[in-house]
Amino acid sequence: MQFKDLVDKDFFKDILDNCNNGINIADINGRVVFSNKVSASYVGEQPESMVGKMITDFYPKAVLLSVLKYKHLIHDKEIHHVGGKKYMLNSFPIFMKGKFVGAYSIFKDVNDIDALDKKIKTLELQRMLNSTESDFVSIIGKEGSLNEVLKSAKKTVGSLAGPRHSIIIGESGTGKTMLAKMIHSYAIKVGVLNKNAPFVEVNCAQYTNPDIAAVEIFGSEQGAYTGARQKKGLFEQANGGILFLDEAHALDQYQNILLKAIESGKIRRVGGSKEINVDVIIIAASTKNLKNELLPELYQRLAQYELTLPSLQERSLDEKIDLLNYFVKKYENAVIKNRNIKFKVILSPLCKDVLLKAHYPRNIRQMRDVINLSIDAASPLISEIHDGEEIIAHVELEHLPFELFNEHISNERNSIKNNIINSHIESVIDELSRQGLGPRKISKILEAKGYNIEYYKVAYHLKKKKSVP
User: Where are the domains of the chain?
Assistant: First the structure.
């Protein structure tokens, strides 16, 4: 007996019921001939109870009806059906011996796919918001506070005598990684590096074990230690390009082998005997003075150029305004690109003033994050946006993160002389507010009384008090 002789309709039914996709078959009148378990589960039915009834009793907008009417197939149609679910569907006419007898549809729930797509878009949005520039032309402050450091940065790879190693010093969040990437891009632009030259970044502070650090930086040979495999280190990965050593003050115990690699242009993998030639430009960065942290010989080799980035506090008001506008515009562009909606951000004058005067211990990175969080707070959720709707996010004082104000006020909490908004002054502010005076007027009255409290702090106090039930 052959396999085909063992096959009956129940055999095919079992196969179709075990498919991950929904399947419906209807006759020329639109009555259900067959529905598998997946299709029935979508509409809360049993397959047997659907047979003999109109397909529209379960799927009111069934695409299968169009196939029955026009006798043509439909590919990859996205539709909405019962319960707000979304399906991707293919539907086909059925001909038997040249006679049209019905149609069938194969479809799947794509809500999970949409959710994944939204997650990917959200991650892409965050990547765009947090990305660093790699072009000297686009940097804010290139004609101001960063003028000299950018000139020197170009010389590290663009001087006639050839590229040099360099050190970048600056507080956390001042743009050390951005500057390193700009040097890499500039080196490619002027032909010092080829267009595919690698940029390899490593945070030296992540290695608490010097042996692990050595393996990561210099690689290892098979059997160098228990479980060791042949592995290229960061020097080999950066060959022909730039190796960026962030937090280089943590180099600690492996400074000597790094110095040897720089001086000889050769490295040896852990457990290996063969020397490997490497041609790498090294940029070391740190929040500390590397002259006090590195071996004198290593510091001398790396600090052929020492580039110092100013803190945000040291930059001019015009540059801070440019940074604020830049991050707002970057947010708008990221939303437009990733969400495909019209999006505009409007900062209230008070909100803008506070953002510009705020102290950011983590510098530009913190300023960026505060701006992004404030726009987030003023914007609707994705689920609240309708297709084609134009969104305008009005960012007000209450949308700013509380910690932004706490940093202003926390150090002033214990002394009137240090401009505290204490209980006495709070009562004065409240009384003046009840008289209909605004934050600016109240601030001037307090100043006349000997209390120098900026108007935005007054406004924050009133906003915070209003929000308390």
Answer: 3-109, 147-309, 404-467
The CATH number that domain 147-309 falls under is 3.40.50.300
CA atoms within 13 A on the CB side of 80: 3
pLDDT in tens, 308-319: 999 999 999 999
pLDDT for 5 equals: 53
What are the tens digits of pLDDT across the range 34-92? Answer: 999 988 988 889 999 999 999 999 988 888 888 998 888 888 776 656 566 777 888 99
Separation between Cα atoms, residue 245 and residue 227, nearest integer Å: 27
Whole-number Å distance between alpha carbons of 215 and 297: 23
Tell me which CATH code domain 3-109 carries. 3.30.450.20
- Domains 3-109 and 147-309 fall in the same CATH topology: no
